[in-house]
Amino acid sequence: MLKLPPLADHSALELPADVRSIVIVGANGAGKSRFAARMAADAAPHAYNISALDALFTRRRPHLSANGQHPSADPIASDLQMLAPEPSSDATEFERLMWRLMRDEMLNLLNYKLHRADRPDLKLHTTKLDEVIATWQDIFPDNRVLIESGQLLFERRDDRHHGDSAPHDPDRYSALKLSAGEKAVIYYLAAISYAPHHATVFVDSPEMFLHPTMMLAVWNRVEAMRPDCTFVYTTHDLDFAASRTSAAIIWVRSFDARQSTWDYSLLPPDAEIPADVYAAILGARKPVLFIEGDARNSIDMKLYSLIFKDFTLKPLGSCNKVIEATRSFNDLSSFHQLDSYGIVDRDRRDAGEVEYLRRKRVMVPDVAEVENILMLEEVVRAVASHCRKDETRVFSHVKKALLSQFGKDLRKQALLHTRHRVKRTMEYRIDGRFTDIASLDRHVHALADEINPRGLYDRFVEEFSRYRAEGDYQSVLRVYNQKSMLPACNVAGLCGLSGKDHYISTILDILRSGSSPNARRITRAIRRCFNLPEETIITPSAK
Questions:
Q1: Mean pLDDT lowest for which of 36-45, 221-230, 279-288?
Q2: Helices of type H across 127-211
Q3: Closest listed residue to residue 125, CA positions, set 116, 117, 136
Q4: Rounded CA separation 258/255 (Å)
Q5: Cβ distance 43 to 2 under 8 Å?
Q6: At residue 437, does pLDDT exceed 90?
Q7: What span, in angstroms and rounded, lies between the C-alpha atoms of 490 and 473?
Q8: CA neighbor of 92 nearest in space, from 127, 131, 52
Q9: pTM above 0.85, yes or no
């Protein structure tokens, strides 16, 4: 069984007995490579290291075989120098592997010719080269591999025409003219074919040079070629880590060079952890905060990164992904030992839904969506003050415009809230344990009467009308989902700014200033919107 390196107390975790592949992940500088090197040293003499980066581009000493001898020590191989001259001593490992494949192919042919007369039923053995060629052509179906005059040649067929002429004949070229990705695949296939029996194969950066669309297929084929071997991968690639569904995942957090010990954990078996969560684990040195939107274009990331500075932010797109990632991450707290939270828009969630999410560490603001945060009274006033405008006058105009727009959309908004409430209630209340359709039909009809959509709608209309009549600006922001709110209220123009984008960028610029009075006003307002203390965003729980 493979031995794992020591922890700080000099004990070590144990791998499952039947594990065939292991993936080592961790942040840059955490000590992953040293961890793998220690495992390889402890696995000697069964350790077998492969690295496409080293093999393709590093000039090194002649490769040694598994028993420590130079491949050409075989007397027959020495006689083969005329047919396949051995590469020079500074050849790359890739070049030497190509030579070794051809050498073994020629040995097989010589053995066949020498003994065919005495054994008429003798057949040519399938060689390592045969297997490498067949697998490589499966992965690159538009390519062919040829053996001509003792050389391994490649050709690529395509349908391109030169002017009005017929399709040109494919060009043939040596392995040295392949792309880095094509070479990497050949290298992995050839290298694994020479691994000692029952070896532990250590692979550094298995994603190197491989396109994501073929990475899974390549490593599935490599592992299938050697079911007797155990594979240990060190990687930064999230898709690759997620693709090894039966692998043991080791997260290396840190390395103590003086004691030669590591802080690491094993991912619990069968844990469902999405690649997005891996991303947070790999880069996290601080508690993790999952948010909606994307890293480049969404307001969420731009705004929250300036408010929640003590956290590693990870945008996941939809609210459902945020909720699920927060749940998964917290379920694995014993593995990664990091606090994690989520933020989702309130949208049309009622108080019960909001409270449920908050208990699950998913924060929900007291406004409908992130754009509404930019319309908070104190935020509007701070921007107006920053732009040297009368903040009371600016906010008065914004408030009047918002209430007017809400009044026009009031019944539409009430219908949207009714639809949401009916949908959620139906989802929660329908009991799945029915033995016949008649029972289910009665249950659904009873629910329809109980839910009373018309009554719900009338109550929303009444509630929203009261907000408008009383000028309850904050309550309108809590229930009003309307993307056109910012331009419709002309908040940018009232502040002397050119438009919505200018208004948003001004808020972000104010927050970046950090210590200015208006930056503190905006920060306090947004923290209060999440019911958080003004000075401490979230107090990480003790581990």
A1: 279-288
A2: 128-139, 180-193
A3: 116
A4: 9
A5: yes
A6: no
A7: 16
A8: 52
A9: no
